[in-house]
User: Fold these one by one.
Assistant:
Number 1:
Amino acid sequence: MKLYYEGSEGSIINLMGDGIYAQSPETLTGSTWQYTATSEVNGLGRIKRFYKKMEERPLELSIMADNEEEFNELTYRMHRIFERDIRRVKPGKIWWNDWYKEVFVVETSNDEFEENFQSIERSLKLLSTKPYWTKATKFQYLDQSQGGGSLDYDDSLLDYNDFDYDLEELIEVIQNDCIGSAKFELKFYGPCQNPSVTVGDHIYELLTELESGEYAVIDSRNKTIRKYGSYGEEENIFADRNKESYIFQEIPEGTIAISRDKLLKVDITLYDERGEPEWI
């Protein structure tokens, strides 16, 4: 398995090699749901809701180096990356294969320091403000104006929720294998005018123009809509959304039909959020 920490600026700490070895990493995978309930009447209670709150998880590391210089480099680099995330108040990510959880390393303690063998046992406490393991799956829908292949239409998709699709547009699908509906990131690429995509029977549309080299990103997790220019300039275009159709509507589970203009290039990334990651 792959287990590593990614700092908020992109630095990687391998936690299963290179002198650092996680002990009992399964302690990271526990999941707890909080709940509120009505008072018991005649011995019976009623659950009102389940929810997640911030959580802390432990992680034990064995650090072993071949010499003093390597030992100092390992421990200093680890401290620097963890501390930078704390001071910037930007979480890092703990990765379990293709799944990650956003965390801060809020506590470290050391034991069994062996100076002659350049080794130490280090305990970490990881704080997660979003206690979900997340896997991102990207779907890309390219410009098909040059006739890059034929399309096989499925009548069951075209009849999805009795939506009247215009067959002059491109009909495709997105496969949401998440547990329930999924948060997403939707990216429109220029050049285009008022880019729009229909997922199932829901419209995601921006009332704006994107020039060649520009793109717009709808981020349903953070509830933001931003436009990016060719030279890295960034603009908040939240006000340019189609206000008659909720722009952050989560994408439902299953195989869902997508309708878009053949000229429009779109990326849709689905975020699968779960209490524990897939183990292998």
Note: The first helix runs from residue 68 to 88.
Number 2:
Amino acid sequence: MNKKYLYIGLIFLLAGLFLLVATDRKRKSIDFTCVEISSNKVSGDSLSPVIINGTKVVLLKGYYGCNEFKRGDLVVFKLKIRDDLFIKELAGLPYDKVEFENSNIKINDKILSNSEKEIYQFDERMERILEIPLKDGVIPLKRFLVLGEPAFASDSFDSRTFGYIDEEYIIGRVLTLKEFEKRDLGGFDFIGLVIDGKYLSKEQVVITLGITMSGDKIPLGFIHSTTENSKSINGLLKDLIRRNFKFTEGLLTITDGSTGLIKAVKEIFDKYAITQRCT
């Protein structure tokens, strides 16, 4: 066998089958070693139009155990006095400078606004809630400002109401399923592809995982399917190609030996792929 493919096989053997390290669409590393992935449905419109009521999202539980907090992340958290989970945008980080001006908030000298470019409004009570914990005008260590989409104070249930949240109450980060499934794949140099069926909550999901020349493991996409038939898998693989998945330089595909998976690989990738059965 070509040494190139032997090398890929060793990567899979050492790393296991799934989700160790991935890279997001901006090519900044995402470490999945601390992450538990699940799918959830959003209830409420506090993040509309970014996320509307009923939208399915991917919850990356434990994400910040091995990844940095970044402004703009959509974080999942709970409150000390409530067991409900909430999703808001991470708008302020530890050591950010906080100022209030004409009922608006400035973070590091920039006035904050929502996705519709509406400036966030704060009444006097909300300003006091956020000013009291400040240390020399900056957000304390392990404290975070989170905001929803409503610009007006009367419509808010976020840090304007309950103040900064402690790091210990942050559960993880979320991605919308649409965002996850529509990522452009043209920037990656793939040499391997794992296709496997898994049962999640008694439902079968067929999952694809790409391997790059540098050894990064990239979750690519998935479908709900009652069987691993070639027709449904064809659609999944065609979607990867539509998203600029590169394979014409040669591709090692690894499956569980399902006839439907192998047939789909041959139909879509033709002579460019060789197939290895995982055991």
Note: The mean pLDDT is 83.
